[in-house]
Specification:
The chain is mainly alpha-helical. It contains ten helices and no strands.
């Protein structure tokens, strides 16, 4: 179909890939829990646009360039790790302020200030872009399901990318509405909110370390 080989296998692999936890899904869930459905979808839009850029770069062969050029790969890798670390530090600082205060008004003021400064779409977009392993993965995964003899390979990549975005939309939608349910519990229990923010910050640090240790091979 349109130059796509073994579509059922691709879809099965795609489901497993989408369900793997990562910084994108964690950030969307965090935004939805703190700011509601609309902000959650704003962050999700950043993820979808970032993924689209990665897919386009992958189809154009940029991932192969990163794989062949260790210096270029290192620059992208450490830039991405640095950005994830910056986000993690911000989350941990916010969590520390929540732990220190026991007055609800102060805690709400901290949350409101953080929400006013946050740009969910931009952050999610940058988080998606600074993921060199994702670029390499998209190329390695997509190429296996594109018929090399098909006259219009770009169309094959569009079909595969459309399925990937649909799977991402369904998954992130589930996370967004799960996040709004968590929000009610967070508002009632400030300690729970602080604990969740601490855990999110720690996970982002973990993602940064994992990215730093990634190799182009």
């Amino acid at each position: 179909m349109l130059g796509v080989i073994d579509l059922p296998t691709y879809l099965a692999g795609l489901v497993l890939i989408v369900l793997l936890p990562g910084p994108n899904s964690l950030y969307v869930l965090s935004v939805a829990a703190r700011r509601g459905v609309r902000a959650g979808y704003t962050a999700a839009a950043g993820v979808w646009c970032g993924d689209t850029v990665l897919m386009t770069l992958s189809a154009a062969g940029v991932a192969s360039l990163l794989q062949a050029n260790a210096v270029l790969f290192g620059i992208v890798k450490y830039a991405g790790a640095g950005y994830l670390t910056w986000l993690a530090v911000g989350m941990l600082r916010a969590a520390w302020q929540m732990w220190r205060t026991r007055r609800e008004r102060v805690a709400e003021a901290v949350e409101s200030e953080a929400a006013a400064e946050e740009r969910p779409y931009r952050r999610a977009f940058v988080i998606s872009l600074f993921n060199p392993k994702a670029i390499l993965f998209f190329v390695a995964f997509f190429v296996q399901f594109v018929d090399p003899g098909y006259a219009y390979p770009a169309l094959s990549f569009v079909v595969l990318g459309a399925f990937a975005q649909l799977a991402s939309f369904l998954y992130l939608t589930a996370l967004i509405f799960s996040g709004t349910k968590l929000a009610a519990a967070f508002r009632r229990r400030k300690r729970l909110s602080a604990g969740a923010t601490t855990a999110a910050g720690a996970l982002f640090l973990g993602f940064a370390v994992k990215l730093t240790l990634a190799s182009a091979a």
